[in-house]
Amino acid sequence: MNDLSCLPPGPKWGFWQPLAYAQSAYHFLPKVHARYGDPFTVHFSLPTVVTGHPDGIRQIFTAPVDTFCVLIPMSIRRVLGEQDLRAIGGEAHRRPRKLIAPGFQKTALDDIGLMIHESTVQALKNWRDGDTIDINNALQDITLEVILKTVFGVDGRADFEPFRLAVKNLAASWGNPSYMLSAALRIDSDEWPPNRRVNIARRKLADLLLDDIKKRRTREEQRGDILSRLMEARFEDGGGFSDEDLVDSLLTNLLAGLTGTALLMTWLFAWMGRHEHVAERIQQEIDGLDRDDDIDAIQALPYLDAAFRECLRLYPQVPLVMRGLAKPLQVRGYELPAGINIAACSAVLHMDPDIYPQPELFNPDRFLERNYNGFEYIPFGGGYKMCVGNHLSMLQVKVMLAVLLSRGRFSQLDKGPLKVKYLGLLMGPADVRACFNAK
Ligand code: HEM
């Protein structure tokens, strides 16, 4: 690696940095930013230069693709596999991305909205009037069912159960504190028990998916889900994804879809419990729908959209959007060398008072009063690697919430100050419970 004395200032290397980040990125990153300015350097598996300024973020997201590679630690690569888009960078990323992204585009999701609706209505039948619901757990169960159906076409209770267990098991072993600690301490051996547990859990889920894909190939089934589209997609030379590549490409999306989408809805419940006027405005919008399966009308509800955006602003699920540098890059006056990581920091950017006045307040109206460009608001990343699931997850949370609020009433039980803690892989609001009453 090149001389690192040219890097921006930051705290000296020490294994406490990954630990402090893991403990709470939302606390650690703004604190280092306040102390050292923008950009600053932190030390994870590699030195990482971080910017939370729109100019720096623009420089990262608009740089030529061959500037980048992916330098991710073994602890993440072990789960992603070799062919997940997140594990591929630079020019090599172009080919698989071109095949995967169209299946997730807004226009391709028309039928999926109705599938989400149907799955949510089915799942809701398991809730009884008067039940006290742990919102995150309950939403994870529904979301998993929706993702398995819409992305993988898994349908029917009997098919669903082994997938459900395998996904939960992988999420639990990946999110286990012992695995996170091993990652922070860079213990990479496959024989180390926390690593072995993740390997076994991933293999189990991959085998289930592989088996399902093979069965479909022999039956030549058309199910209309996203996996079917990817099985049919062809590169320019006529070739398609191999079964193993398909598993790698989609396996992590099960987890991203499950944890990210459920968490986003949990945040909204947490804020609605603490801001009655927000809950009322959302309820009014949903009550104003003629039908709760009018997917276009649900997607166009302005306040609901703004409220979800505000949730993602205050607690972005990916606080650091990382890129490896394959070539030097100028960022905010620093000539950064190849071989390090750089990151666009949503946890800092989204709290910039010049862009978001009174940034600590939950105020969805800010998204109705102003448009934020892709260097000011980055919950789904940006540039050539922007999240392919962004439209799907927004569609999913909106349709699911519309079904829940049009068929039930939720009285929130926890209204005190918000506490943030790990809910599996990601950090979210602690203790969000509600009493459910069917309408
Ligand atoms: C609220 C939910 C979600 C959030 C907040 C989220 C956020 C992100 C972020 C920040 C990135 C990194 C982007 C970058 O490097 O610039 C990403 C990448 C990605 N996400 Fe999501 N995501 C969500 C849900 C999903 C879902 C449901 C799927 C698919 C079913 C998905 C698929 C992907 C893929 C494939 C990538 C890698 C893209 C690439 O490297 O080309 N995400 N996501």
Tell me what the structure shows.
The chain is 50% helix and 11% strand. It has one domain (16-438): Cytochrome p450 (Orthogonal Bundle), CATH 1.10.630. 42% of the residues are buried. It is of the alpha+beta class. The model has no long low-confidence stretch (mean pLDDT 91). Residues 85-86, 97, 151, 253, 256-257, 260-261, 264, 317-318, 321, 379-383, 385-389, 392-393 line the site of protoporphyrin IX containing FE.
Keywords for this structure?
Cytochrome p450; binds protoporphyrin IX containing FE; 11% strand; alpha+beta; 439 residues; globular; 18 helices
Describe the SSE topology.
Elements: H1 16-23, H2 25-36, E1 40-43, E2 47-51, H3 54-61, E3 68-69, H4 74-80, H5 94-100, H6 110-124, E4 132-134, H7 135-150, H8 157-174, H9 177-184, H10 193-219, H11 226-232, H12 243-274, H13 276-287, H14 295-299, H15 302-314, E5 320-325, E6 329-331, E7 334-336, E8 341-345, H16 346-349, H17 366-369, H18 390-407, E9 408-412, E10 420-423, E11 426-429, E12 433-438
Parallel strand pairs: 2-8
Antiparallel strand pairs: 1-2, 3-5, 4-12, 5-8, 6-7, 9-12, 10-11
The protein binds protoporphyrin IX containing FE.
Protoporphyrin IX containing FE binds near residues 261, 318 and 389.
